[in-house]
Amino acid sequence: MRIDLHTHSDRSDGTESPDRLVRRAHREGIDVLGLTDHDTTEGWDEAVCAARDVGLTLVRGIEVSCTFAGYGVHLLAYLPDPTYPPLVDELQRVLDGRNARLPATLDKLRRLGIEIDEDDVCEVAGETAAKGRPHVADALVGLGVVADRDEAFERYLGSRGPAYVHRYAADLETMIGTVRTAGGVSVLAHPWARRHDHSALDESGLARLRDQGLAGIEVDHEDHSPAARARLREIAGRLGLVVTGSSDNHGAGKSGHELGCNSTSPDQLQRLEDLAGEASAASGRRTPGVVRA
Ligand code: AMP
Ligand code: FE
Ligand code: FE
Ligand code: ZN
Question: Is the pTM of this model over 0.90?
């Protein structure tokens, strides 16, 4: 079984439509796919149609931009009711923050002598609901300023770069609660990724999050070293957290994150589904089930 629970389409910063992503996953031998665009459920319906068509099992999710102890962290929210008002409102706040950041980023680039306007970015961003730095990066590539997204982050857009602009993100602990009352289940994405500060996400931080309803942690991720994976796996075992593994595929937008490069074991997926089932029953919300192949 190849279970890949974290991928992006062009509804956020992936490069292919949900339809094409699902079809490619099927062709490449993925059995279970999680679609987890940043801060939006816009891709869900299209992915469901494609999954039913090709016979792929699909888990609908969202990778929510959050903050914890002053730092950015990503929370994978699986199977929540996408119409639950507190969730809808908070995602809208995050998307508003993305929209407000774009002109500020372009201003900074202009001051660095790089003329780029919002239309250039919107053109490459296509159908996305969640505009982000990767789209600005793509526009910079299009203008010949940098060779690829990585160079754009390194030189301009990364958190220490000269064109970095802060944006709003949801409070992590509140969001874990919101996902649960929306009938879904939460998994912390790449908690010890190299690019993030993760000093607050040590064992005691993770224990606190578990007590607030966190169900699992993404252990097997390309941004985790083998040593980090081993330690996170031990911590997950001690805390009773579900362990997932996934690619974080962004289509052509990120190299080294090929579909299925990491995967989740069937028993861990079953635990997530069971917990989501319990949350769904307790919430009384109409939640999106797993689409079965
Ligand atoms: P944003 O959502 O606009 O804050 O941009 C963050 C997103 O950019 C992350 O979720 C990644 O998908 C992507 N990203 C971050 N660093 C890099 C990098 N060095 N190269 C390519 N993509 C990156
Ligand atoms: Fe991304
Ligand atoms: Fe992420
Ligand atoms: Zn991601």
Answer: yes
